[in-house]
Amino acid sequence: MTVEHVLLNCPKWSTEREELIHPLCTTDIKEILTSKKGSKAAIRMIQQQRLQGSSGNQEEEEDRMEEEDRMEEEDRMEEEDRMEEEDRMEEEDRMEEEDRMEEEDRMEEEDRMEEEDRMEEEDRMEEEDRMEEEDRMEEEDRMEEEDRMEEEDRMEEEDRMEEEDRMEEEDRMEEEDRMEEEDRMEEEDRTEEEGGGRREMKKGGLYE
């Protein structure tokens, strides 16, 4: 197996091919191979040496160079396709990340709005409870005031009636005292009249 055969059929360099080719290579080819410029540069070196050594094989060399150019074009196109695929995948990843972030933002906004609604509802209910409590306390105060006023009126009425009863009792007692006094005076007058009649009768000899 010649160096040209190995390099042309195995254009991508490897350690195994290096071990196979080195014993058959010229110094210039070995320098190219070991300098990591790749097998394609070595192929070109071989092709140049062969063209210089034998013009009868020119057609074959041209075919090989065309094949090499074709392979290089294929490699270039493969590399372009690979890079395009990488770019496409990166773009997909970027768009997915954008979508994910937008979804996160949307969910955060929903959560924020829900929290705002919840807090507003809590505030509304607290305000309703506060107003209801105020109304209840006002109603209690109003009823207490009504009860107090009713109690005052009741006590005033009781006092008025007691005062009326007391005055009536005083009037009754005064009337009784007056009547008793009148009776007493009438009795005294009657007694005096009776006493006077006896004296007259005594003077007239009616009494022994």
Automatic annotation (TrEMBL):
Ranges of biased composition (kind: Basic and acidic residues): 193-208
Q: Where is the composition biased (Acidic residues)?
A: 58-192
Query: Domain of life, per the record?
Result: Eukaryota
Q: Where is the composition biased (Polar residues)?
A: 46-57
> Which residues does the annotated region (Disordered) include?
45-208
Protein's name in the database: Uncharacterized protein
Q: What is the lineage of its organism?
A: Eukaryota, Fungi, Dikarya, Ascomycota, Pezizomycotina
